[in-house]
């Protein structure tokens, strides 16, 4: 690629800038509310730990002993004391985006008995669910912009834990709870949990701002039954073999996943590792993408992503580091043409570590080149990409978790790179390390969208001054913001797809493509994918 001297000099100057010191401002994004499960997650710092492992080290949870109370039931969160505290925290902390809610388990386990008929059990679950919905409605009335994630529960382990306390079974702290339920088998109590979870899932499926990751058998999957189950039905099963979401209903959560108090284990509350596994699932299915800003783009699996070395070796793996005499850099392409026509205020790249050989080449900073368009002659990874002159070249700060496979780093792109990320072309990045020791890290590629490299983008503030004008030729959707109807100003439109902040389609239209009626949607921010003959475009619209 031929560049003039001025561009080369500017790139050299740019490469000397970047951050002299890496620091981040942590912001409260999650309000943790609920019963003993919320209490223990607060004690264990579970949400903070897991979010950092997914690269979101700048996101924090907030809780206290009033809103995360051991033994609390749904009724408790309909009292003035708890509702006043929830409201106070939500109003005082406008940065909170999610209320992580864990209630309902004590209601069900405290009132259910094996002698109940199916009708009685269904009635109990319905009454608990109704109170849970009341709590959620209260939260959404206080802050209509927040989302609620009901965390659900994993299978308990009463019989095996209590029998392992022999001959002092009746002295076990949870013996009375098991006795009050009528000494249910694993299958009996697990089926109650499965049915209760299914009822909650049916409700959350109809609520765009309420979420639930249903997987009561997940700890069977992550821990496995490595030793013979101490009571009937006995037997073992390997880690990562339990079918999800319900696992093996005739088995409990493994005893190794239950909280260990030394003399005995808990029958219902999880170990710190158990809660981490649960929140890791929630982060994979919800938090990771939800905590992104206005738009996130995924790297694909094609030849435009891979790695390139200092000697011109090209690979389709995402490799970074020193291998012999070759310095490998990770090359990524993101289709930024789907962006809105707005300036970028902030951007970051998320990468998941798949494996490591030798010394870890990732330090507090990584060297990043950015090009608006292609670095070489095509968008594919090419040998020239390693030495090609970019639009910006800087040492960028690295955050997140850097100490294990399956964990994520986040590279915050400095301000001087942001003008080269726009909708007029694709954007390519080449990421390298300054480490001199032998070692390479391999990042997860785009095969699984949940684990693919991410470019996270935050736009500047939306200008509402154009909301009342329909004459701007650049405006595709108007009025914007809107309270319902919007007009689509584009030619040869085939379909319109409206997506919420999680990328879920909430409205699809292919017949009348000149207007959209958003009046049935909750207030908030949406993306509208306009599919037309000239090409596809994504535009952000605010429903208020």
Task: Characterize the structure shown.
The protein has 544 residues and is α+β, with helices and mostly antiparallel strands. The protein has 3 domains: 27-290, Rossmann fold (3-Layer(aba) Sandwich); 294-459, Sandwich (Jelly Rolls); 477-543, Immunoglobulin-like, CATH 2.60.40. It is 23% helix and 28% strand. The protein has 11 helices and 26 strands. The protein has an 8-stranded antiparallel barrel. A 5-stranded parallel sheet has the order 2-1-3-4-5, sandwiched between helices. The longest helix has 25 residues, at 118-142. It is globular, with a radius of gyration of 26 Å. The protein starts with a helix and ends with a strand.
Could you report the average pLDDT, rounded to the nearest whole number? 90
Poorly predicted segments: 1-19, 462-474
Q: Which percent bin holds the helix content?
A: 10-25%
The main sheet orders its strands as: 11-12-17-14-15-16-13-18
- Main sheet specs: 8 strands, antiparallel, barrel
Radius of gyration from the CA trace? 26 Å
Total helical elements: 11
Shape: globular
CATH fold assignment of the largest domain: Rossmann fold
- Overall structural domain count: 3
How many beta-strand runs? 26
Write out the CATH superfamily name of the largest domain: SGNH hydrolase
| Category by helix and strand content | alpha+beta
Beta-strand level of the residues, as a percent range?
Answer: 25-35%
Q: What is the annotated CATH architecture of the largest domain?
A: 3-Layer(aba) Sandwich
Question: Can you tell me the CATH class of the largest domain?
Answer: Alpha Beta
Q: How many angstroms separate the termini?
A: 48 Å
